[in-house]
């Protein structure tokens, strides 16, 4: 074993202490930088959200979250139309934005006309919509149509569902459709809806559709 002279041992200890002091100071500086960065990011997030919060405060329109298993609260938006309400997409390509304006970033793009969406808010000529998966965003009002459509039980995991010739579960089958099929809605009596597409039509239990409210009547 090598024994260091006392003065060498003290010098070595001093070097070790300086090293730890330097490491601790560097860590403190890094922590301070991280806290400043996090604070700045939080400030930017608040700034980004502020315009939408202000818009909500001045009357974008009441938000109502309907339940597909029961009655929903209905109000009137600035347009005079009910909120919420179902509509359909008018175009094969529709940009869905993060806020009500073209200066807001595009969150995603719809690429199929006719899909049902739910209008839950209004602000000037913009509509906040919700799709069948629960995603929400803003689209320009002229890109929406009052023509009604629906998705057949997109939540089901079965191979097919029966569309009947009459509004009766005992009626013969008019067609068998897969979950998620897009259909036009021709009429609903509050319990059954007559739906169809190019080569088929028939009646289905109203609760098996996303795009129509329970008990809603359509003529």
Automatic annotation (TrEMBL):
The chain crosses the membrane at residues 44-65. It comes from the Bacteria. The keyword Transmembrane helix applies. Residues 84-147 form the SH3b domain. Keywords: Membrane, Transmembrane, Transmembrane helix. Signal peptide: none annotated. This is SH3-like domain-containing protein. It comes from Rhodobium gokarnense.
């Amino acid at each position: 074993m090598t024994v260091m002279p006392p003065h060498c041992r003290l010098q070595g200890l001093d070097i070790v202490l300086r090293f730890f002091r330097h490491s601790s100071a560097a860590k403190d500086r890094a922590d301070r930088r991280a806290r400043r960065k996090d604070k700045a990011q939080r400030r930017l997030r608040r700034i980004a959200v502020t315009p939408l919060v202000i818009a909500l405060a001045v009357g974008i329109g009441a938000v109502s979250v309907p339940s597909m298993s029961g009655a929903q609260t209905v109000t009137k938006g600035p347009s005079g139309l009910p909120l919420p309400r179902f509509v359909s997409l008018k175009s094969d390509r529709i940009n869905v934005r993060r806020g009500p304006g073209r200066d807001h970033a595009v969150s995603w793009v719809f690429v199929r006309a006719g899909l049902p969406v739910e209008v839950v808010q209004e602000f000037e000529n913009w509509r906040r919509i919700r799709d069948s998966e629960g995603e929400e965003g803003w689209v320009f009002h002229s890109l929406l149509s009052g023509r009604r459509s629906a998705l057949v039980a997109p939540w089901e995991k079965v191979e097919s569902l029966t569309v009947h010739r009459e509004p009766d579960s005992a009626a013969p089958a008019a067609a068998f459709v897969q979950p998620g099929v897009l259909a036009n809605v021709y009429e609903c009596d509050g319990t059954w809806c007559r739906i169809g597409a190019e080569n088929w039509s028939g009646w289905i239990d109203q609760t098996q559709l996303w795009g129509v409210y329970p008990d809603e009547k359509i003529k």
